Each structure stands twice: as C-alpha cells, then as structure tokens.
Amino acid sequence: MAKHGKDYFGWNRVLSIILAIIPVTAFILGFVTRIAEGKIVAAIVRILLGWNIIWLVDLVLMILNGSIWRLIDC
C-alpha cells in the first residue's frame, strides 16, 4: 500500500468522521480523494460500488484510522 495523508483533504478527524457518516458526502469525497491522488481506476470503482459496502468499510476505517479504504491502489 502506498503512503497517504489524512483523508478528506487533510481536514481534522472529527469533521472527516461526520462527513463519512453522511452517505452522499462520503461517496463524493471518496471519489474526489481518489481522483486527487491520481488513482483513476480506484475512482471508477468507487463510482460503481461506493454506495454500499465501500461506504460501510470507509465509515469504520475513518472512525478507527482516520483514512478511507484503499481497495485498489492503481
């Protein structure tokens, strides 16, 4: 796995958790975060699958680690 900073643009953890709880914002910010990292394939996967299981995993990981799930790192 590649090194990465705090997710959701380096915003503080509490704000990131609040945004991750809301499915629409988590979906959009997860997509934008992956595009900002230059991971086009991962962004496309988030568009196709980001509304269900990925959202739940992202929520749990945001609470525990402060970062989203990197299923695909390409």
Write up this protein.
The chain has 74 residues and is an all-alpha fold. The chain is globular and about 30 Å long.
Question: Summary?
Answer:
With 74 residues, the protein is mainly alpha-helical. The protein is 61% helix and 0% strand. The mean pLDDT is 81.
The pLDDT mean sits at 81
Total beta strand runs: 0
* Biggest sheet architecture: none
Supply the number of helical segments.
4
Question: What overall geometry do the principal axes of the alpha carbons give?
Answer: globular
Could you give the topology of this structure?
Layout: H1 13-21, H2 23-36, H3 40-49, H4 53-64
Please give a handful of descriptors for the protein shown:
single chain; 74 residues; mainly alpha; 4 helices; 61% helix; 0% strand; globular
